Amino acid sequence: MASSSSTISAMLVPAAVLLSFLMVASANNFYLDFDTSWGGNRTKILNNGELLTLSLDNSSGSGVQSKRDFLFGKIDMQIKLVPNNSAGTVTTYFLSSQGQYWDELDFEFLGNLSGQPYTVHTNVITQGKGNREQQFYMWFDPTADFHTYSFLWNPQYVLFSVDGTPIREFKNLETSGVPYPNKQVMKVYASIWDGDSWATEGGKVKIDWSQAPFIAAYRNFTTYACIMSNGTTCGGFNSSFYSSNNSSWYTQQLDSASQAKLKWVQDNYMIYNYCTDTKRFNGTVPTECTVSN
Ligand SMILES: *[C@@H]1O[C@H](CO)[C@@H](O)[C@H](O)[C@H]1NC(C)=O
Ligand SMILES: *[C@@H]1O[C@H](CO)[C@@H](O)[C@H](O)[C@H]1NC(C)=O
Ligand SMILES: *[C@@H]1O[C@H](CO)[C@@H](O)[C@H](O)[C@H]1NC(C)=O
Ligand SMILES: *[C@@H]1O[C@H](CO)[C@@H](O)[C@H](O)[C@H]1NC(C)=O
Ligand SMILES: *[C@@H]1O[C@H](CO)[C@@H](O)[C@H](O)[C@H]1NC(C)=O
Ligand SMILES: *[C@@H]1O[C@H](CO)[C@@H](O)[C@H](O)[C@H]1NC(C)=O
Ligand SMILES: *[C@@H]1O[C@H](CO)[C@@H](O)[C@H](O)[C@H]1NC(C)=O
Ligand SMILES: *[C@@H]1O[C@H](CO)[C@@H](O)[C@H](O)[C@H]1NC(C)=O
Ligand SMILES: *[C@@H]1O[C@H](CO)[C@@H](O)[C@H](O)[C@H]1NC(C)=O
Ligand SMILES: CC(=O)N[C@H]1CO[C@H](CO)[C@@H](O)[C@@H]1O
Known about the structure:
This protein is mainly β. It has three helices and 16 strands. The longest helix is centred in the C-terminal third of the chain and has 13 residues, at 256-268. Mean pLDDT is 87; it is low at 1-20 and 235-244. The site of one 2-acetamido-2-deoxy-beta-D-glucopyranose (NAG) has 2 residues, from loops.
């Protein structure tokens, strides 16, 4: 999914290199932050860099990738999904590294017929191994307006949130033998593509090309993150950065209020959870599903 010709391919970052990462906060300018990776003029940057639209038609989808590489961050994007009949389309917003043993954190938005609910599909891939899907409906219509989709990615955990409400947590369970994404830099990607072989009702509902082009809109890309740089520390060790920019995300853990919200989402809006799909895993679900710490 991460189509990139980046020359930083398979860059493995030893722990010591962390010390050459810089913590920065930056606000949205799509011209400065992203390159078009495919789809040519189907990606459009509008309003002086404030708005990005990605379009899918019967000959191609489109996608962008961030210019910067990140290792940890709080990375937010506002997205307005394809309105009306979006069945078969997949709109994405994700982080990914390169190489055979890549790490990836995914938001994929699976379209639907008019009036039927969009599915927010998430996955966590570490060291090239995924199969960690969780899916949700939203408590609002994600095509009617922009909503904020966030990754909080720090050394302790990854938290997926929507409008500040956590929907999914992936803890660092390296001590239990579960690989955690903390050694490879990732870029941010966004794309729209034809996924009608699987996306809507398991592939039964196909794209109605008479409705093309399908357009998703992105704005207000905001990062509080560690980026590769020379000679500056990351993670709030540099006190001047710590005070000028809010780096609490780096040490943040899930508090009880967030835990309660997460439970509310999982109880009411989760429609698929790999951790309860014992059949798929022949009775033995992955380690992170059963470790309780
Ligand atoms: C892209 O450019 C081609 C050729 O100029 C044009 O026909 C097409 O409509 C453009 N597509 C979009 C989405 O702007
Ligand atoms: C693709 O869409 C264009 C524009 O709507 C249309 O002219 C063309 O016939 C379509 N091609 C196919 C193979 O459906
Ligand atoms: C689409 O709508 C159907 C019917 O409401 C629903 O079962 C399905 O989960 C929705 N989402 C997708 C991606 O198929
Ligand atoms: C842009 O995103 C940031 C971070 O999520 C948020 O604090 C801010 O309110 C957003 N701005 C607008 C105009 O929505
Ligand atoms: C980092 O330092 C190296 C060696 O001193 C230099 O070649 C490179 O341009 C620097 N990169 C940045 C982004 O400052
Ligand atoms: C801390 O950050 C400031 C910029 O706010 C920079 O001037 C300074 O060199 C940094 N100090 C260290 C030790 O990296
Ligand atoms: C973060 O701090 C840097 C360095 O002090 C400053 O240039 C930048 O404007 C700050 N960004 C925000 C969003 O506060
Ligand atoms: C920093 O951000 C956290 C949320 O990530 C918030 O709770 C806290 O109030 C913020 N602190 C400051 C000084 O802005
Ligand atoms: C479960 O068993 C089937 C049939 O033996 C096998 O094809 C499949 O790979 C197994 N799946 C896992 C996750 O072990
Ligand atoms: C082409 C089409 O059907 N557009 C409709 C999409 O949905 C909005 C409301 O959600 C309508 O206003 C449009 O007419």
